[in-house]
Amino acid sequence: MSNEVLLIFLEELRELKEQFDTSLLSLRKDFTDQSSIDGAFRALHTIKGSGAMCGLTQLSEFAHAFETLFDEFRKGNAPVNQEVIRLSFEASDLLPDLVNPSDITAARSAAILSGLANSVHADEGAGAGTNLTKTFSFRLKGKVLELGANPALILQELRELGATEIEADTSAVPGLDDLDPETCYIGWHMKLPADVDEAALNTVFLFFDVDKDYGSAPAASGTPAQPARPPAGASASSHPKAPAAQAEASIRVGTSKLDSLVDQVGELVIAEARLSELARLSKDPNLLALAEQINRLSLGLRDTAMSIRMVPFGTLASRFERLVADLCMTLSKDVTFEVIGRETELDKTMIEKLADPLVHIIRNSMDHGIEPAEIRTANGKKATGSIQISAEHIGSEVIVTVKDDGKGLDADRIHAKAIEKGILSPDEAVSQDRLFNLIFEPAFSTQSQVSELSGRGVGMDVVKKTIDGLRGKVDVQSTAGKGTEITLRLPLTLAIVEGLLIEVDHEKYTIPVSIVNEIVDLPADKYAGTTSSDFLNVRGDFVPFVRLRKVLGCPPLFTGPQVLIVISASGEHVGIVVDRIIGKSQTVIKQMSPLHEDITQISGATILGDGTVALILDPIHLIEAGREVRHAIMSPEEVSA
Amino acid sequence: MTLSLHCEGFQDIVPEAQTLSASLKSGTVDSVELPTGFPSPIGLLQFALSIRASAEAQGRAVTITCPDPEVHKVAQECGLSGVLAPLTGGDHVQ
C-alpha cells in the first residue's frame, strides 16, 4: 500500500473514530437510543471495509469481530450497558494502533472482544428471534471484479445476518465471445430471517452498486414488530442513498495542498495589487480594464480559498466530549458537557493549535474544579457537575470560553502561594483579576504541590504560552463555590484580510477593515495632544484615543491635520490617531519572525502593490492602549459603567 | 486434449478466451486447466462458467480443473462448487 493511500485511510479512520465516539457518547446518555447504536455500527462497518481494502488485516478483522458482537445490540438481542460503552471506547482507542499491529494490540483486541462477548451473552436468549424467513437476491453491478470485489466476504456477512440456502444464479454468465471478465454476471439467492431489515442489508452493500431484490416478509400475524425502529419513511430518507450523495458533494484533500493553495492565492493577490498599480500609472485603458477583471477574479478566488480553510468549532469540540466522558469514568464524577457555537467557523490552523490548551483547561476543570457529588450536594448544588464550552465571533476575534460550576479558585491560597514564590510581595495590593491570572505564571505550574492550590496550576502556563503564540489573550474569572470561567480571545488568523492602509510619519501601516467602526477628522484643538484630553465625543460616546505616533515611538509629535479611526473589539471602542488614510488594500498577512515577537504593537506584515512593506497593527494591543487611557482618566465606577 | 491457461490478470483473459473459443469450436479441447494465483478467484470461477457455457453451446462437454485450493474454497463459499472438477490428490493437493 502506498503512503498516499495510507494517509488517506488514516484521515478517514480519524473521522470514523470520531463518528463512533460521538455515537457512543449519545448512547452513554440513553442505552436504548437505536440511532446511536446504528451510528456506531455504521462507523465500525466502514472502518472494517476501508481497512480491508487497504490490506490492514488485523484492523479489519478486529472491526469485523467487534461489529459482529455489536450487531446483537443493534438487533435488540442484548442490552447496552455501562460496560459495553467502556469496552467500545477501548475499542475506539485501539483502532489507530491496529494500523501497526503488535503482540500488545493482539492482547488488547482479545481482551476487548472477550469482554464484549461476555456482555452480549450475559442476556442471551432475551431477544430470541423468529424462525420466519424471507427471500433475498442480489447481483453486483459494474466492473466490480476489477475493483477487487469479493462476493465470498459479502456472503459471509449475509450468513452472519442469518442467511441460509444460498444459491448462485449463473444463468446470466455469457459465453467466451461475449465475456467481459471484469463484470460480475453471477447473482445469488438466499433466505434471510424475517427480522433482518433493509438498513442492515444496506450496510452489507455499503461499498457496492448492487441490484437487490427483497422477497416479501411472511404475513404471519405472530411476526414481532420492531418498535425501536423509526417509521419506514424516516429510515428510508436517512439511510440508503446518503453515502452516495455525500460522495458526490465532497472530496478529501490533504491539508498541505490546502495550505499551498492559500499561499499561492496570497501571492496572486500581491501580484494583482502590483498589476493594478502599474495599470494605474500607465493610464492605458486596456490594461486598466484587464487589471480590474483580474482583481475581481483574484478576490473571488481569495474568498473561495479562505472559506475552504474554515472548519466548524464542533469538529474540535467532539474530542472534548470524549475526554469528559473518559474523565467521568476515571474520576467517578458525573458531569454534563455542553458545547455552544458548534457552527462557529475557525481557521483550521487555529483549531489545531487550540486543542492542547483546551484539553488542559477541561482536564483541570474535571480534576480540580468539579467537586465530588457528595460535596456538591452538601453545598446545595446539583450532584451532576457542568462544563460548558462556547465559541463565537466578536468583531475580529474568536472568543472561546470554558465555564464550570465547580468550587472556583481559592484567592487566599493563590495569594499565599504567589508571596511564597516571590511573585508578589507580602504588602503588595493586588486586584482579584490579576491574582487569578497568576495561575498562568510558569512558577505556578512547576511544582506538583500547586495542584493542591485549588487545582488551577498544572499546565496552565502552557495554555497562556500557546494563546500568546496565537496573539490572543487568556482571562480567568472565578467565584468561590460557584465556578470558574476561562476566556480565550483570539484574533482571526485568516491569511488574507481586507486592510485599511494608513500613514504615520511617512511609513505605511494597515489595520483590518473589519474592526473599523468609523473615521472622523480629529478636531484642530486636539492636533498637538496632551494626555489629559485624549478623549473625543463621537456622537455622545466618549471614545478614548491613542496617537499612533506615540504608540510607535515616532518623534516629533505631529501638529498638522490628523484623522481619528474608531475601532471596536470585544465591545470596546478605541480611537487611533493617524497622519493620513491612504485607502483599502488586500492584506496578505505574513508572520513576523521570532526576533520580532516582543514588538506587541505589530501582528504581522504585508507587501503592497508598489512592492513596499506595510506593518499590520495589532488590534488587541490598540484596544488595550485605549483601555489604559480610559483607566487613567476615569474612576473605576465610570469605567465599569 | 487439455489446454492449460496461464493468465495472470483480467487483461490476459480476453486473449485466452478468444483462443479457447476457437479451440472449443474446432473440438480440439476437452479439458481446461485454470491457472493458480489468479488475483480474483471469483473472476476465475466466472471464466470457468463462461467456458462451460461456450462448450455447451457447441454441444460439447468440457472438464475444468484448477490446482489452486483458494479457488475451490471461494467456489464452495459462493455456492459454485460444481463448476470445477474436484481436487483429486496427487500434485494438486497441498
Automatic annotation (TrEMBL), chain A:
GO biological process: chemotaxis
Keywords noted in UniProt: ATP-binding, Chemotaxis, Kinase, Nucleotide-binding, Phosphoprotein, Transferase, Two-component regulatory system
Keyword Zinc: no
Reactions listed under catalytic activity: ATP + protein L-histidine = ADP + protein N-phospho-L-histidine
Domain CheW-like: 496-628
Region (Disordered): 218-249
Any one Gene Ontology cellular component term annotated for this protein: cytoplasm
Extent of Low complexity compositional bias: 231-247
Keyword ATP-binding: yes
CDD domains the UniProt entry points to: HPT (cd00088)
Positions where Phosphohistidine occurs in the chain: 45
InterPro entries: Bact_Chemotaxis_CheA, CheA-like_dim, CheA-like_homodim_sf, CheW-like_dom_sf, CheW-lke_dom, HATPase_C_sf, HATPase_dom, His_kinase_dom
EC class: transferase
Residue ranges of every copy of the Histidine kinase domain listed in the record: 290-494
GO MF annotation list: ATP binding; phosphorelay sensor kinase activity
Record-annotated HPt domain positions: 1-102
Protein EC: 2.7.13.3
PANTHER family registered for this protein in UniProt: CHEMOTAXIS PROTEIN CHEA (PTHR43395:SF10), SENSOR HISTIDINE KINASE CHEA (PTHR43395)
Described purpose of this protein according to its UniProt entry: Involved in the transmission of sensory signals from the chemoreceptors to the flagellar motors. CheA is autophosphorylated; it can transfer its phosphate group to either CheB or CheY.
Protein name: Chemotaxis protein CheA
Lineage of the organism: Bacteria, Pseudomonadati, Pseudomonadota, Alphaproteobacteria, Rhodobacterales
Automatic annotation (TrEMBL), chain B:
Protein name: STAS domain-containing protein
